[in-house]
Amino acid sequence: MRSLIAGTGSYAPAKILTNADIEKLVDTSDQWIVERTGIRQRHVAAPEEATSDLALAAARRALESAKLDPADVEMIVVGTVTPDYQFPSVAAVVQGKLGNKKAFAFDLTAACAGSLYALSIADRFVSTGAVKNALVIGADALTRITDWTDRNTCILFGDGAGAMVLRPTDEPGRGVLTTRLHTDGSLVSILLMPGGGSRDPLSQKVLDERSHFVKMNGREVFKVAVRALVESCREVLAAEGLTPADVKHVIAHQANKRILDATLERLEIPASRCWMNLEKYGNTSAASVPMTLDEANRAGWFQPGDPILMMAIGGGMAWGASIVRW
What is the mean pLDDT of residues 275-280? Predict the structure, then answer.
């Protein structure tokens, strides 16, 4: 038995922040941003919107897509680095707002790879028969932890949420096939939010140093990302006896167009097979993969049995890849 992605949903806040808007905040330009990232705009959560609100909207759309009553969900797992609260989890908040009493619910933190990690965990529960269905969500409000005076990072991030419903299937040649996850904790320093946790609790010092915002060494992240994504993609392809030529579609974390282009080039997969939407949304962290999957799904991109290569990498560094047959 395997788990099948039976429904998808996504949500992006109404407010749009364009590159022209960012030109007014820091010393940059639309041309500079587009050439280096491929991003033209990003969505920003309204003041009254928290991560759970984004997650809830995406979840409801995925449940509707899967024709599953919210009350019947048995497991909810959310990948996020911007929870509403230190505790309880975003997943618990979503469960309550769905009116669900059945599901066990929890969050996990793997930064931009969060939804792929969440998918892997839910897949184990569904494919082994431990639960009949699972709701997997990636949701982040990264603009809440963005330093709008840092021209190297504030151009990158946007807010959003994506969701997937998993169900068991016995259909041959369909479902989540192979997933491989990796972490390299020696690289913590190249992408992190250093302040506000137990190591350096929120204080006037943290606020003055602006260490409660995302800090990134973009050059190092780029080098690690391309190498790690290529290796993990080859790993899952080999596990399934597939070659890059067999891949029908690519659903990748939308971090930076140059990372995606370099990864696809090394894998020798045509860019036309990779759904790209980062010019509209920017880097939405854990939301990116399920938002991209939902957009491609609703555009009619997939046919049953299509081999899909999914990949993501984020702070940790944490990354992984998965082969899914639609």
Answer: 98
